[in-house]
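Form 7-S
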Amino acid sequence: MLRLQNIACRRIARQVLCALVVCGLHCARVSAMPSPPYADKQKTQPPTIRWSETQSGCTFSRGDDGKYRYGLWSRDLGIVLAVDARELQVIRHRIEPIFGVLLTIRYRGPGTLETSSEGITLQFLKHFKVVQPVLDPDDYTQKIQADADAADAETRRWVARHPQKKEKTEAREQDYQKSVSELIDFLGRNSLRPAHLNSGNPEVSGWVFFDTKNKWLGGWKSQEDFVLRVPLAGYIFEFPFKLPPTPGELLLQKRP
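Output:
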């Protein structure tokens, strides 16, 4: 009886072992199978064209207008990034803490190039590498106007409770409303807008802005590191830059 039990146990053990071997071979075949085509497409990133001072097609200059300019050409497409030397100092004096750069896009190809500010980002490398998306000028204008309307309503209520301080309070509110109007006007006239570039219209230029109202931003260093990324024509154009480019540098706007 004991012998029959031992035979049965060995038979069961062999069956279990065979099952494990078959399962292992199947798993190995599955893991060795190539990924489906759509998986590779999801991971594929547009090729990057990066600005470098030693790279062909890249330029750098200091302008009499107080701006640093970084130029990058690739085939028929060129982008010039211009940033004010005092941009980090100017931020704190704006009614909104926004960081701005001026972009110029040039196209000398035979066809048509569609351009827009969509997808542009600015990375702040010395602040936990925070990445801020470009502000939509129309949406941001609506936000600024809504904030201004709310501030005006609050000022009226405050003056009604403190009439003895009416003159000073209203004067301060008028200055604020004037600054709001100037900013809204600037965004409307000078922001980078979508464009169709071709031989008859080869260039578009405009400002793009990024919000710095973030708990990780502020307390600017004496020299800051940034990376501006511009998706265009199936590529990512990268502009690494510093403010100032060399420590302690002071670039002033020259008088005409």
